[in-house]
Amino acid sequence: MDSYDHKSIEKKWQDKWESDGMYCADENSTKPKKYVLDMFPYPSGEGLHLGHVENYTATCIYSRYLRMKGFNVMHPIGWDAFGLPAENYAIKTGIHPDQSTHQNIKNFIAQMKGLGFSSDWTREIDTSSPEYYRWTQWFFLLLYKNGLAYKKKAKVNWCESCKTGLANEQAQGGLCERCKNTVIQKDLEQWFFKITDYADDLINDLDKVDWPSSTVAQQRNWIGRSEGVEFSMSIDGTDTSIAVYTTRIDTVFGMTYVVLAPEHPLVETLLSAVKNKSEVEGYIQASTKKTELERTELAKEKTGVVLEGILAINPFTKKPVPVFLGDYVLGNYGTGAVMAVPAHDERDFEFAKKYNLSIVPVIDGFDGSEAYIKDGTLINSGEFSGMLSEEAREKMASWLLSEESGFKKVNYRLRDWLISRQRYWGAPIPVIYCTMCGEVPVPEKDLPVLLPKDVDFHPTGESPLRQSKSFHEVLCPKCGMKATRESDTMDTFVCSSWYYFRFADPKNDKEFASREKIEKWLPVDMYMGGAEHAVLHLMYARFFTKVLKKLDYIDFDEPFLKVCHQGMILASDGRKMSKSLGNVINPNELVEKFGADTLRLHEMFLGPLEDMKAWNSDTIIGPRRFLERAWKLKNKLQQTTDNEQQENQKLDTILHKTIKKVTDDIESFSFNTAISAMMMLINEMEKAPVVSSEHYEIFLKLLAPFAPHISEELWSAVGNTESIHLSPWPVFDGTKIVESEVTIAIQVNGKMRDTIVVPADAEEDVIKGMALARPAVAKWVDGKDIKKVIVVKGKIINIVVGETPL
RNA sequence: GCUGGAGUGGCGGAAUUGGUAUACGCGCCAGUCUUAGGAACUGGUACCGCAAGGUUUGGGGGUUCGAGUCCCCCCUCCAGCACCA
């Protein structure tokens, strides 16, 4: 018989599936829907890498399985096409991003089709197309109208290399998310989305979703809810006061000084009264020069300067304490000022030691060697002494409230989302500035605000769009006078915050998606993509969904019911694959040599989907052999006689066990074990005297989601005319799984000594008798005192013996 | 430091509610067929031991008839956050 030639088979079926429109989601179907989504790719010039293949194979398997199970599956694909790399490429080569992006998309499509991914190509979207970004701009206006988009001057993260502002989430650890350069703080007027309004919902609703625990934890940490007290301290001899925020109001009697962030707005006011003015000014200057990285990660040594002549009054003790500036206090968290309790806070302790400030313990347990930060019994705290921390916090907060000098306060580390980018390749922010009318949003009817082409992309720190006269110089939509257009573009994460709605209704030119279509398809049932988006895309998208819910566009509040992350695929040396290391494996070559089916199987067989895995090109031969054997098995199909069918009882049991195993494993995304179960099945089928075509077809169906081409080919070769991918998923027969005989292990004192085969329904006494009759058991039991026998039906018998004192 | 996760053969990794640890695959060893094979097939392969047997799931305790799995302590590794008061 012919040999397994993956090249001709794979091409043949890919073309057929495409012309048949096999994987298009059906708008009119009455079947229950499933929305299976991948984090859509950025179409980079490098093309698909092994991580993409892993991601899309997993969702492809799941989608194909669900279709066979009888679901109406939507499994769309699109392009997250705006972004820095295309622009940087344009700067280097002079090729317009629009052109290079489209070339890259073509390449991606060819690669994805070559891997047999069952995407619905009729719903393809491209965030850089005007038909799409028109609605991205519409979302901006929606947020603007509802007070959720605002412009303000603020210290923002600024990447000197990318020459643009960045959101907090994109400047983690003080490094630019894109280029890993150090981020500095710059005073700029920028647009923000008020994601902080949704901080509580974003935390609380995490309980509603089925997400990886680490991702949920990361979002919780990032949002960083903390409950405490804000209170004000009057400044001695003035009518001004300093507000401070603390979660440990129970330690307030131990406050020995106050620290303000160097950028605290009050500093300027106080400066006139400060005696060491020039010293203070010098400190402020030095600390603003520091990068975020220097202030945080590297700032092990705390620095500060006292404001001589300034004293703040502790409202509880009425005693004055000195006031410092210190850049270990962050200007943009809480009130930008803290009460310092060195006895019970590590940072304050360190600072107090360095500047020789007094340390007053107010929680029992402080021994002077280090800060005692645990809760405990209050001491030296006036009327609050003797209380436990928790009680004291309540009582003190009430006291402050009654004195009208403080209140309970919840703070978040989450900041509003800075969305202005001083870059070219993004959706223009739809706002116009008029000298008469001020800030005027572009009217909806004028959308999209088209991205101009007549600009130089080189980033200068000012948006390139400003160079385009036709774009920049406009008339005010309100008064018709000369005005200028906002020239910044939006963060690309804005584009990807709503794309999963668009897939439900990708061609709609009246709305971002119709309510009807959204209700039909959303929310996403299964969302798969990299874990690096845990606090970026996944949080922004949740924010958008919550806004739509609140404004009654939709009736659910979480977009992604289940999220799964594929683990990163490393090079065989355990390092990241990268061009500079020259250790990148190109999937094209593997498809060419081994076939798409083999590559798909191999990536899934490498290990648990969510684990990080090192690539191994040597072991791909295993899955290839498996497929070869599946191919050859066709030769073994014979017209089976009734007699032989009877002999095949054993195979029947194994087959049905495999159906159950593969089904369960696909449901739980445990593809590596599903494949191993199929390998075991084929081992058995090869050993069996005869394989019926009925058995073989069931095997092919199990294999179909994993290796769609070869299973389709073999399915057709055994005489089927309709696609295997439209055939129903096999159902396991519980009665066939029950075996008539079982092997049970015999233990003596917990040690395995022998096994016996008994009827599945054998009584305990029978098993016991049989076990004791075994020589290998008798050897350990004879002459001993049998103290106890534990029988677990179908599994094990444990005979507990003791030494007989003879 | 905090949060989340993981430590099982030469390697990737399996193990329902605690119930035969090392499935499946790679590699390796032996054999068959071949002019030859880096092809295919058959058998073997946790470790020590000739064997009987003993020992093994990062280390140490514990619960249990029985622990990779549950509890306590410790070590190591990975990922994320990192002066958030």
Strand-helix topology:
Layout: H1 6-20, E1 33-38, H2 50-68, E2 72-74, E3 76-79, H3 84-93, H4 97-114, E4 120-126, H5 130-145, E5 149-159, E6 164-166, E7 183-193, H6 199-204, H7 213-223, E8 226-234, E9 241-246, E10 257-260, H8 266-271, H9 277-289, H10 292-295, E11 305-313, E12 320-325, E13 337-340, H11 346-354, H12 389-402, E14 406-411, E15 417-418, E16 420-421, E17 431-434, E18 438-441, H13 469-472, E19 473-475, E20 482-485, E21 489-490, H14 492-495, H15 499-502, H16 515-521, E22 526-528, H17 537-550, E23 563-564, E24 569-570, H18 587-594, H19 596-605, E25 613-614, H20 621-632, H21 642-647, H22 649-667, H23 671-687, H24 693-703, H25 708-717, H26 734-737, E26 741-748, E27 751-759, H27 764-773, H28 775-781, E28 785-792, E29 796-802
Parallel strand pairs: 1-2, 1-22, 3-4, 10-12, 22-23, 24-25, 26-29
Antiparallel strand pairs: 5-6, 5-7, 7-15, 8-9, 8-14, 10-13, 11-12, 16-21, 17-18, 17-20, 19-20, 26-27, 28-29
The structure holds one RNA strand of 85 nucleotides.
Strands in their spatial order, largest beta sheet: 2-1-22-23
Secondary structure tally, helices: 28
The best one-word shape is globular
Radius of gyration: 34 Å
How many strand segments? 29
* Major β-sheet profile: 4 strands, parallel
Helix amount: 25-40%
Strand content: 15-25%
Unreliable stretches: none
Structural class designation: alpha/beta
Terminus-to-terminus distance:
73 Å
Mean of all residue-level pLDDT scores? 90
